[in-house]
Amino acid sequence: MNEKQRSRIKDTLIVATSKDGFISPADGVKLPSTKWTSKEDYQFFTEKTQEIGVMIMGRATYETIARPLPRRLIVVLTRDSEKQAEAARRKLKMDYLPNNLRFTSKSPQEILQSLANEGYQQVALCGGASLYQLFTKENLVDEMFITIEPIEFGDGIKLFENNKIYGNFQLIKETPLNKQGTILQHWLRRLN
Ligand SMILES: NC(=O)c1ccc[n+]([C@@H]2O[C@H](COP(=O)([O-])OP(=O)(O)OC[C@H]3O[C@@H](n4cnc5c(N)ncnc54)[C@H](OP(=O)(O)O)[C@@H]3O)[C@@H](O)[C@H]2O)c1
Q1: Substitution candidate for ligand 1 out of 55, 131, 160 with most atoms within 8 A of CB
Q2: CB 59 near ligand 1, within 6 Å
Q3: pLDDT averaged over every residue in the chain
Q4: CA distance 174 to 181
Q5: What are residue 187's DSSP bridge partners?
Q6: Can you name the residues that pair with 149 across neighbouring β-strands?
Q7: Whole-number Å distance between alpha carbons of 188 and 138
Q8: Is pTM, for the whole model, over 0.85?
Q9: Closest approach atom of ligand 1 to CA 83
Q10: 177 lines ligand 1 (CB under 6 A)
């Protein structure tokens, strides 16, 4: 896919991190981000993803939600889409998958292209670490909303393996979300 085709769909990365840059503590499975982020971040996340309308996430992140979300299409990346779709359907106790939940093994470029072909103009990239890294390495992220919570984990899953990724973006706005010190950063991809 060339740059012109890709620009038909805007890819917005949305993430919450600790003050020391982790998206999850070392025992993240027991402590999903919904358990340590602020209610203001939850509100931002809900409003922004509803406004965008499409969420892309990895299978492990989907399992922390394990259900479709209202007013959003969820596209889940997995290497075995049939098996995961079947598991989700059984978990939801439904004969068919709801039409706002999809499992796919396509590449990031193919996913964005087929969503663009369906008429979607923007997607929210909602994690986890493997997807944030996959999409940014392929230079497919146009903007980032990073909520920094006033908490330190000391260890855990980093947002990016290599902080050089930030060099591709420009911080354009920082907004305090509450009195506890939660900050929302808005980054835009630098134009080459
Ligand atoms: N702080 C935040 O804002 C935030 C947001 C989201 C997630 N998280 C945290 O991130 C952690 C999960 O991150 P994670 O990196 O372990 O998992 P993840 O990215 O959510 O999901 C990983 C899975 O995605 C699928 N996948 C990844 N790359 C793929 C590719 N190229 N092609 C096809 N499928 C692919 C694979 O599924 P299969 O194994 O089924 O093949 C893989 O096991 C959790 O602790 C979660 O709480 C934090």
Answers
A1: 131
A2: yes
A3: 93
A4: 12
A5: 144, 171
A6: 18
A7: 16
A8: yes
A9: 40
A10: no
